[in-house]
Amino acid sequence: MGDFKVITSDFVNLQISTSKNDISFSEKRFPKGITITELKSKLELLTGGSCSTMQLEVFDKDDKFVCNLNEDNQLLGAYPVDCGMRLHVIDKFLLKNELESGDIEKFELSEEEYSKKSDTVRAFLQRNKLGQYNADIKQKKEKLEAEEKTQAEKLICNSRCKVTIPNASPRLGTIKYVGKVDGLQGFWVGIHYDEPLGKHNGMYNGKQYFECPDKYGAFIKPFNVTMGDFPEEDYDLNQEL
User: Fold this and answer.
1) pTM for the full model?
2) What mean pLDDT comes out for the span 119-136?
3) For residue 63, what is the DSSP state?
4) Average per-residue pLDDT in the chain?
5) Gyration radius of the chain over CA positions
6) Is 161 helix (H, G, I), strand (E, B) or coil?
7) Measured between alpha carbons, how far is 182 from 105 in angstroms, rounded to an integer?
8) Are residues 205 and 212 in contact, defined by beta-carbon separation less than 8 angstroms?
9) Torsions phi, psi for 10 (to 5 deg)
């Protein structure tokens, strides 16, 4: 039997939930090449939990338990984590609770004062070369964004296209938007699908990027979009069987 290679995405989109009922977050995108320690540092900034005490659990789309992310030095990509799964953060959230208490006076540090402190999350990340302070990860991110921009510039609005996403059938549609999307990293392509296989009507986080019927719109990474002569198929549901 010949050799073969399985190619998967370098990133994974996960829904974030926490053990504190009043905290919920939208879908977040993480590189599979980060360690669980680096992942916890990102979640610390997002949830207000603590890297040293938080526990991470993964649930699938049917809300069934998949695994614990309990090895701090292991890569996220080493676990059976796929897009659409839920990452559940378990912690006491003492820092967030204290900051939200009405009995404690709140204050803010200036950027200069914050940079001088040695006991902050930023200082921890810098000392350990994690996240954006990891030269390799930063370089990979910059390279990916440059490649995405180059690919995005080749796509033309109102052109027909085919969308190919891992673990999904190819979908046909029309390119309606190319560029940045507020709240998301990198470049995105707004697609008006021929069928109701999307997630929205061209609006994301309250901003309308393009117009289409509800559930016909989606934002897709440029590498998953192929522009070409793809005639719209006739989905006549009244044909005889």
Assistant:
1) 0.47
2) 68
3) S
4) 80
5) 21
6) strand
7) 32
8) no
9) -80, -5
